[in-house]
Specification:
two-stranded antiparallel ribbon; alpha+beta; 5-stranded mixed beta sheet; 417 residues
Length: 417
């Protein structure tokens, strides 16, 4: 990027906003320089002698026309170059010594090179250099190798090269600016994607927590209402389970919602996310609600990665909640967690033996969808469907990175099962 003094920033911005004014001022400056140069001629010792000659009226007219054409150099660069080139050639052919009308052609050639592509610059530049140089060398009293004729070739070539360099620099700056804008857009899109993924993850956790505990509260409240008059001791026990389930639900909701707090908030949760280490406590809540659950877990001391550990816990929690809600009061469930190579397989079965199974709502729920999203996010697979002979089966395969875990690793094992 070009770094300019502070005092030049505002005038430059103003000139960019008024290009026609700038081009008019440039045309006036070129006209003044051509008129001044037309009154001088080279003297001995590379000196200029002013006032030694006076330009003809035709030369002044050509200079005025050529300078006036430069006002339109941005809108029609090739046409302006053609006009100034023709006027310069006419000056070379009919006036001796010629006036410096060629200065306007040099400026027009620079504009063409700066505003077009490189092949066009090469073709137009070589043609302009050839026409002007041949016209300057072919006529006139000075020899063809004179300083003035060589100067026409040099200045026209320099104008083409300088214009091409300006165009290349502008393209480079534009590419850098576009790359920066694209990187900014990419960062914003990535941030939005991460926010959406985090919202989906929190929504899944909230659904799992609420569905599980509300189902248990509903069952225990129904039991308490049923035995309240005849067996108050069982009603008290059921209400105690309701209290424990509601307290657990509040704690998990507080922990999940607390993730949305600012990092410096002292009330933000610090306890780890649930996993297979507390699977035993999870199964006890279902057993207390009247759902017999059998569990089989291989390698209970082999740790799982945190993401897989949480996903396995939530899958078992949601699957057993569905069993309790839909399989009926007399159903039984089986849970197995098996490590197979670099994967862990979670299976939850029920026998469908409930006396009064509860049909699933026609609109469907979000339990299976949430489980499938969790498994897919980790690169695993999940299958769910009825079993032959009755019941339902959920089978999930989660990839895990094999690692050597210490037997005493806490918070990641399934030792609670």
């Amino acid at each position: 990027m070009t770094i300019l003094p502070t005092g030049l920033v505002r005038p430059r911005r103003w000139l960019r906003g008024h290009p026609l004014t700038f081009d008019g001022a440039l045309a006036l400056a070129v006209l003044v320089s051509m008129l001044c140069a037309s009154f001088a001629e080279p003297g001995p010792g590379h000196r200029l002698i002013l006032g030694s000659r006076t330009p003809e009226a035709s030369s002044v007219l050509l200079m005025v026309l050529a300078a006036g054409a430069l006002v339109l150099r941005r809108r029609r660069p090739v046409a302006v170059l053609a006009v100034t080139g023709v006027l310069s050639t006419v000056e070379f052919l009919f006036v001796d010594p010629p006036a410096p009308v060629v200065v306007s052609a040099v400026v027009a050639l620079f504009t063409v090179a700066a505003s077009t592509d490189r092949p066009t610059t090469w073709r137009v530049g070589l043609l302009t250099m050839a026409v002007l140089t041949v016209a300057a060398m072919a006529v006139g009293s000075a020899p063809w190798y004179s300083q003035q004729n060589v100067g026409v070739l040099a200045w026209s070539g320099l104008a083409a090269a300088a214009g091409d360099a300006v165009r290349s620099r502008r393209a480079f700056v534009d590419a850098i600016r576009e790359r920066a804008e694209r990187a900014e857009r990419t960062r914003e899109e990535e941030a939005r994607r991460r926010v959406a993924e985090e919202r989906l993850r929190i929504a899944r956790d909230l659904h799992d927590v609420v569905a599980h505990h509300i189902a248990l509260v509903n069952v225990q409240a129904g039991v308490a209402a049923h035995v309240m008059d005849k067996r108050p001791d069982q009603a008290k026990e059921a209400l105690a389970h309701v209290r424990d389930a509601s307290r657990s639900a509040l704690d998990e909701l507080r922990a999940t919602v607390g993730l949305l707090r600012q990092s410096g908030d002292p009330e933000a949760p610090t306890e780890p996310a649930p996993g297979l280490a507390v699977l035993g406590a999870l199964l006890d809540t279902f057993r207390n609600a009247g759902l017999p659950v059998e569990v089989a877990c291989t390698d209970p001391d082999s740790p799982l990665p945190a993401a897989a550990d949480l996903a396995a816990y939530r899958i078992i929690q949601e699957a057993l909640t569905n069993v309790r809600k839909h399989a009926g009061a007399g159903a039984k469930a089986e849970v197995s967690v098996v490590r197979v190579g670099a994967t862990v397989e979670i299976t939850v079965l029920d026998d469908g033996g409930g006396a009064d199974p509860v049909p699933a709502p026609s609109g469907g729920g979000h339990g299976l969808i949430g489980m499938r999203e969790r498994v897919t996010a980790l690169g695993g697979t999940l299958t769910a469907g009825p079993r032959y002979g009755g019941g339902f089966r959920i089978h999930a395969i989660l990839p895990v990175m094999p690692r050597a875990g210490a037997p005493g690793a806490a918070g990641t094992t399934g030792g609670g099962a």
